[in-house]
Amino acid sequence: MASSSPDAPCSCDCFVSVPPASAIPAVIFAKNSDRPRDEVQEVVFVPAGTHAPGSRLQCTYIEVEQVSKTHAVILSRPSWLWGAEMGANEHGVCIGNEAVWTKEPLREGEALLGMDLLRPFHGTLRAAHGTTDC
C-alpha cells in the first residue's frame, strides 16, 4: 500500500516456517498488520461450541447463518470489530487476514469485512488432512 504519510501503515504480511527451516521442531506462524498504530488489538479466546439449526451469527455489520459446530480459537482483533486479524484454533490451524486491493466498485449497503470472513472460517477448519466441518 503506497502512502505519502510516514505514520500510515504500509504492509500486511504473514509468514510460516516449518521444520527443518525452523530452529526449533515446531511450526512458526507470524503476521504483521497494516492497522493504525494506535488501534487497540485484543487477544480473545472463543470456546468451541455447538449451535442449533437456524442459528444466526452477528458479525461486524451483518448477520449470517451459523454453522452447527465451531472449534475453540484464540484471536487477535481490533477492539471495534467482530472479526479477527489473525488466530489459531484448537487443531493447530493458523490464519491471518491480508489486505486485498481490488478495482471492483463498492456496492451499496453493509457487508462482511475481510476480518469477519477470517473468524468463522477459522473456527471450522481442522488440521488433519485439510478437512473441514463446513
UniProtKB/TrEMBL annotation:
InterPro entries the record matches: Peptidase_C69 (IPR005322)
GO BP annotations, alphabetical order? proteolysis
Query: What GO annotations for molecular function exist for this entry?
Result: cysteine-type exopeptidase activity; dipeptidase activity
Family, as annotated: Belongs to the peptidase C69 family. Secernin subfamily.
Q: What is this protein called?
A: Secernin-2
Q: Which gene codes for it? A: SCRN2
